[in-house]
Amino acid sequence: MNLSNFLKNAVYAIVFGFMGLIIGIWTSDVLYMVIFKNIDRVTTIYISVGLIVFIIISASFLGFAKGKSLLE
Fold first, then answer.
1. I want to staple 24 with a disulfide (CB 3.0 to 4.6 A). Which of 9, 35, 43, 52 is the partner?
2. What's the sign of the alpha-carbon dihedral 42, 47, 50, 53?
3. Cα gap 64→20, rounded to integer Å
4. Would you say residue 71 has pLDDT above 90?
5. What is the per-residue pLDDT across 13-45, written as a single tens digit (0 to 9) for each?
């Protein structure tokens, strides 16, 4: 893999990571409304942040690995 392909894949990872941030926040909000209402606030925050970070990392990895084929 040369430098130009690596930079292209890094840009795909950034774009997909940002989309993952949006989807992660939305998912955490929906889960809070449905499941997490009766759980302690601190526990809910930790679960939500963990879920958001997991979605960002997985979306970035997907963007780095398959971003070009998914966007074309």
1. 52
2. negative
3. 13
4. no
5. 999 999 999 999 999 999 888 887 888 888 888
pLDDT at position 46 is 92
**E strands along the chain, which residues?**
none
Task: Give the Cα separation of 31 and 13 in Å (integer).
Answer: 25
Q: Are 32 and 48 in contact (CB under 8 A)?
A: yes
3-state secondary structure at position 65: helix
For the chain, count helices (H), then strands (E).
2, 0
**Separation of alpha carbons 21 and 40, rounded Å:** 24
pLDDT recorded at residue 35: 86
